[in-house]
Design brief:
The protein folds into three domains: 3-85, Nucleic acid-binding proteins (OB fold (Dihydrolipoamide Acetyltransferase, E2P)); 91-250, P-loop containing nucleotide triphosphate hydrolases (Rossmann fold, 3-Layer(aba) Sandwich), CATH 3.40.50.300; 263-327, Ribonucleotide Reductase Protein R1, domain 1 (Orthogonal Bundle). It is 29% helix and 22% strand. The chain is built from ten helices and 13 strands. The chain starts with 9 loop residues before the first helix and ends in a 23-residue tail after the last helix.
């Protein structure tokens, strides 16, 4: 399988040149599970593990994830050893689940983020705001995909409400069962483009992969009727090459999505709301009004009479506070390491 099918470009070839001088081979991670991975190389898919040097020297965000381009060493009859991660075009990160304030990389080198939610009781614009901020922080185009339209009472109305609640973001309505919207979704996925599916369990991400692949690539399971919650059927991140030539990265459902250092993404997510607030604030009695309990606050008046969306206002305040608290406690990556991209410079060859 030529690597060009997986997104290899002349620019990446230039990034790889120093590693080629060391006799290393390029590859893209298509499956990643803890310390082991499956890597697509020019000779086909191979099992790979981290080289000792990379394991001991990598910072929090320098470990390879699905979608990464890597430099590997190989020995006849053995798997590959991942020696380095090539510079990334994009990186999706979140605060790791649990109490510890640590960062977790989700996917790398993505061009399009499909934010998936089903048109059932689990549809939640506040959750989608988090996915949207995550995508915008990564510099990737977001598209909300509302699934299971065949069982929704008013799919068009729900689509309009979600778009309005998310500042006008593009929304698509699909049904993998009936085929509704699937052609339009496929049209987004041009050859060589990498898209990531993000959403909670039971949203229909794996069903989308299977429908676009034309075969059962990922396991699926029914959701609970009582609360529309799904079970984790995808337990790892996998990059699938579609017949169209596009690449689709399926991810496990995220029960909680904590934002990590996503101030720019948050600002972009609420840019329209911020503009409304700024316009209203010009009529506040006090120039330094904090829109809290000050008399003559035009922003508070707009919240009370419904001109300003109270739910979005409260959500913005909550997410800002969350980022502020995380910022005061989070562990930063090691000095000299890139936050968002693997930028290790080639040094002496190491043995995996």
């Amino acid at each position: 399988m030529p690597l060009e099918s997986y997104g290899w470009t002349p620019e990446r070839q230039a990034d790889f040149a120093p590693f080629a001088e060391r006799g290393l081979l390029p590859g893209r991670i298509v499956v990643q599970q803890r310390s082991h991975a499956r890597v697509m190389t020019g000779d086909g898919e191979v099992a790979a593990s981290l080289a000792g040097k990379l394991t001991h020297e990598a910072g929090e965000l320098d470990f390879p994830v699905t979608g990464d381009w890597v430099a590997c060493s190989r020995r006849p009859g053995e798997g590959a050893a991942i020696q380095a991660v090539l510079p990334r075009a994009s990186l999706f990160v979140r605060r790791a689940a649990g109490q510890a304030q640590t960062v977790q990389a989700v996917a790398a080198n993505v061009d399009l983020a499909l934010l998936v939610s089903s048109l059932n009781a689990d549809l939640n614009p506040r959750r989608l705001e988090r996915y949207l901020a995550m995508a915008l922080e990564s510099g990737v185009r977001p598209v909300v995909v509302l699934t299971k339209a065949d069982v929704a009472q008013d799919a068009a109305g729900a689509s309009a409400e979600i778009s309005a609640a998310l500042g006008g973001v593009e929304v698509m309505v699909i049904s993998a069962r009936s085929g509704l919207g699937m052609e339009a979704l496929a049209d987004l996925l041009a050859p060589g483009l990498t898209a990531v599916l993000l959403g909670s369990s039971g949203a229909g991400k794996s069903t989308i992969v299977n429908a676009l692949a034309g075969e059962q690539k990922m396991a699926t399971a029914a959701i609970r009727e009582s609360d529309a919650h799904g079970r984790h059927t995808t337990t790892h991140r996998e990059l699938v090459l579609l017949p169209s030539g596009a690449l689709l990265l399926d991810t496990p459902g995220m029960r909680e999505l904590g934002l990590w250092d996503a101030q720019a993404g948050l600002a972009a997510t609420f840019a329209d709301l911020e503009a409304e607030i700024e316009t209203l604030a010009a009529d506040c009695r006090f120039r330094d009004c904090r829109h809290d309990a000050e008399p003559g606050c035009a922003v508070r008046l707009a919240l009370e009479d419904g001109r300003l969306d109270r739910e979005r206002w409260e959500s913005l305040a909550k997410l800002r506070e969350e980022l502020a608290q995380a910022g005061s406690r989070q562990r930063r990556p090691s000095p000299g390491k890139s936050r968002r991209s693997g930028t290790q410079r080639p040094g002496p060859a190491s043995r995996g």
